[in-house]
Amino acid sequence: MTDAPLVRRHTDRAIAVLTLDSPRNRNALSAALIGELTEALDAAEADPGVRAVLLTHTGNTFCAGADLKADGIHRGPQLLVDLITRIATLAKPVVARADGHVRAGGLGLLAACDIPVAGAAATFAFTEVRLGLAASVASLPVLVRADPRAAARYLLTGEAFDTAEAVRIGLVTAWDDALDGILAGLRASSPQGLAATKEITTALLRERIAGAADGLRQQSIRLFESAEAAEGIRAALERRDPPWAQ
Question: Which family does it belong to (predicted)?
Answer without folding.
Answer: Belongs to the enoyl-CoA hydratase/isomerase family.
